[in-house]
Amino acid sequence: MTLDLSSLIKAIASLEKSINSYQVCAANSTLTKEDIETVKAGVIQNFEVAYEQCWKFMKRWIEQNVSAGVVDGVTRRELFRVSAENRLLDDVALWMEFHQSRNLTSHTYDSNNADHAFGSALLFIGAAKEFLARLESRND
């Protein structure tokens, strides 16, 4: 069964657009710091959505193409490990860093957590696009 990847594609595209918007805003000397922080918050929110979509699609693909029981109730680290075994991603440790950044954003909001999550979002876009490309090539 083929997975409908449209929600994943939209989430990754939204993250990429928000990063591009941030870069334009950051280069604009007429914007206030508050304006730039607002756009940065949008990047973080889009990172959260794209990250959630990615791990859910990893799970769905494995359930359909390997075995439903393999990822039922496993930790995120185990999900990423199984995904790497199935060549959906390369770097389990990097995906765990994304997971930790995502967890920071969901528990409390402060500027240090926001900066960490924002930095992760900038790294994540490449990893998410690579994951999507691998998923698309194996989505039959």
TrEMBL record:
GO terms for molecular function: transferase activity. The keyword Transferase applies. NCBIfam families: HI0074. Keywords: Transferase. Pfam families: NTase_sub_bind (PF08780). This is Nucleotidyltransferase substrate binding protein, HI0074 family. InterPro entries: HepT. It comes from the Bacteria. The lineage of its organism: Bacteria, Pseudomonadati, Chlorobiota, Chlorobiia, Chlorobiales.
